[in-house]
Amino acid sequence: MNVRYIYNAISGIKMKTVEFVEEQKPWSRKRQSIPPNKIMHLRVEYDEVQIRNLVKSCGGRWNKGKGYWELAYREVQILGLENRILND
Fold it and tell me: Is 28 within a domain?
């Protein structure tokens, strides 16, 4: 049971509400699914030659204007580079 108080400053009234739990069961948030062909933006440092070559070999493209690599999400997963995805 949850108790909550609601205050109305205009009318000067305080209300007490009660919420009962009828059922409780395990629940987990569904993962947001990303389409496999969605182009992701990756951070790869200049001196990380091996990673850069891997990205290139899987079809990655360098976006000169933005300064990041672009690669399909499916390839990012295969290469294990999810931790390099940039949040735009």
Answer: no
- 79 in Cβ contact with 60 (< 8 Å): no
| Secondary structure E strands in the chain | 2-8, 13-19, 39-42, 61-63, 68-72
* Structural domain of 71: 39-84
Domain count, the chain: 1
Q: For residue 7, is it within any domain? A: no
Consecutive sets of 10 residues in the chain, 88 residues long: mean pLDDT of each? 87 91 83 88 95 96 96 95 90
Whole-angstrom Cα distance, residue 19 to residue 7? 17
Residue 33 lies in a domain: no
What pLDDT is recorded for position 32?
73
